[in-house]
Each structure stands twice: as C-alpha cells, then as structure tokens.
Amino acid sequence: MQEFSTLDGAILVDKPSGPTSHDVVDVIRRKFGIKKVGHCGTLDPNATGLLIIVLGRGTKLSERLMGDDKVYEGVIKFGEETDSYDSDGELTGSLPVMPMTLAELNEEAAKFIGDLMQVPPMVSAIKKGGVPLYKLARKGIDVEREPRLIHIYNFRFTEYAEPLGKFRVACTKGTYIRSLAHDLGQQLGCGAHLTSLRRSASGKFDVADALSLDAILQLSTVELEKRVLPFLKLAAA
Fold it and tell me: Is 44 considered catalytic here?
C-alpha cells in the first residue's frame, strides 16, 4: 500500500470576499507546489467563510466531503430584486416593504423548512447544453432551469430592521441561498436579494477552526503540513 504524505488531506480556509473558490485553489497550488488541489463546495466570489481545500490524495474524498450539510449566515435586503438574486446583479424591481416584526418574518421563513424543489438562479455555474448559465445570462438569454430537490433544516432571522434581515440557515448541499432569499421576497410580495453570505460550517467542520487565506499563504510548507487534516482521518470521519 502506498504511503500517505503529510500533504495528503485537507486544510480549512476562511475565504475572503473577492476571489472565486477556484482562485483560492490556484493560489495554494502555486504557493506550495502541490499538483493536485481542489475544493469542496463553491462559494460565490463575494461570499466568505469555510472552504475545505483538499490536497494530493485528499482530492479523492472531495465528492464525499462536498455532500455534507452546510450552515450559512447572512443578510437579506427586502424591497429590491436583482437578476442574480444578490447584490452583484442588476436591479430588476423595487417595491415597498410591508411592516413586519422579527417574529412575523420568522413565521414566513419557517414555511421554507423541509423538502423543497428549488429553481437555481440564472446567474450560476450550472450548465445548459454544455454552457454555464451565467454566460447565457450575460447575453440576456433566460432559459428554463430544472428544479432541484433540497432540504432546509432551519431558516431563522436573528435581527430585522427594515429593509435588512440577518439570518442563519442549515441546509443540504446544492442549496442556493440566493434563490432562498429571492423566493422569500416573492412570498412576501416585496421582492428581496442576498447582500452578504458567510459559510460557518460544512459537515463536522467549522469556520472557527479555519485559517484566513492570507495566513495560510504566509505559512512555510512545514507549517502547512501541521495544519493538514490527514487523509486517513478524513476517510474515517
């Protein structure tokens, strides 16, 4: 049996706002000279938080780790819709926000708990005929998207001061929080979009145990090895 190296496994990165998940993979690959590097679950460029980066033979576990449930925290703005369902997109509609309390908002959010057939946003990496939807969206093309089965374990707002609500959601893989924000706005009749998002957990892993990308890039290879979660430990988890 081939021996595992000290760089076969995964590291937990607290992704900053700005770079894509692929950018994070690329910069770690180049900095440490590791041939095989991947990530487990894409975060949008402006999203922050936990990004599991798999290294070397740890990439063999990427699909398994990607399948874990996720926890997110973020902010939704009510009264405005965008074409991407988040603040990166173009404004497509604006409506008055009806008066509501935090308790009333949570009553509406609770209606999303359970199994849902969710339609992915047009601005996404999902492919239609081999072409990513976001490329079609840039050309002004809107195509029908197949709904996907997801599960929302919990969706709750912790603060609300019109028009902004701070929330926490626990869900299965493949859930688009942007779509959840959009759909809640549709349900309320005023529209809504996601203004910020942070992934706080994925499976058994928590962002509290992650290092910032800047901190990781300052490590030596020896120091990085000490941060790696070994392949065998991940496989047994």
Answer: yes
